[in-house]
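Question:
When you can, review this sequence-structure pair and walk me through the tokens.
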Amino acid sequence: MDTPNSSLSQEKEGDQQISELPTLNDKGNSQEASDHVYLSLSPSQQEAETRRILATEPLQPVLKVLADLERDNSNFTFPAARLVGLYRRVWESCVYKHFDGEKLEQNNQILKEAGVHLKHERDSLQILHDKQQSQLHFFEQALESSRERLTSVLADWDYPVRHHLSGISEIARRG
């Protein structure tokens, strides 16, 4: 359960946060000023500024009504401000969740593209490896065939010499 002190501090916090929001009357001037500032910000600062604008802009009509209500009847102002503060927090969380979701989708898309690129590279390397394996197998077969032929040629060349030498040695013995 909320204690009276904690609920009062939360309500004061909600009032302070509402008073920090730009009013509808400042919208034209702040838009021109924010255009110049927005261009000089870093991408992360631009994102934070966009989030802030999207989180506060839809609440401008409600803040105007709240200001009118405060002038007309201050008894309803505090509960209404508390409701607006709660609504603003919920709205901000939705805006932040939306931005974070978009950022995750962008990162996922980048990772998917990198994965596809790596898969293509792996496939091309596998094709190159298979091609080199087949060439190596072909060269091994060619080497073995050449070795067999060379052995056969040398054996054939050696046979007549031995046969001829054996014939000469027989003639020498006979003679």
About this structure: DSSP finds five helices and no strands in the chain. The radius of gyration is 44 Å. Helices lie at 4-20, 27-39, 43-56, 60-72, 77-174.
